Fold:
Amino acid sequence: MNIFYWHQITEVFAVTYPNNMVVKIIGFARSVFSGSGGHRDILYDEEAAGIRIIMETYAGTEDERLAVGNWFVGYSAIKGKPTEQEKIRARQEVDDVAKGRYDWRIDRGGNGLSV
Structure:
């Protein structure tokens, strides 16, 4: 990967989105393990839409979207220090976004969302 391109990705992720999406990914990953009663099986529509926007900005193919998602979950892991189980949980859902499994939820315009 081109160093300049990697720097652009890092800047967008590190400056624009972490205060929102990284916190949301960590919160989702921890929801089942926290004991707080806030368990969720899937990402909220707006979380999935935010992840998809990032993926579509930098990736065209499914493999590229998976790579962007892996980076994003890895960055979240650095910031949030989740357990291994929490990282797996987050990666599975972000991978589902990359594979288009959330598209119908996002595209239906739930919660006033349009991507």
Notes: Residues 111-115 have pLDDT under 50 and may be disordered. The CA atoms of residues 7 and 13 lie 10 Å apart.
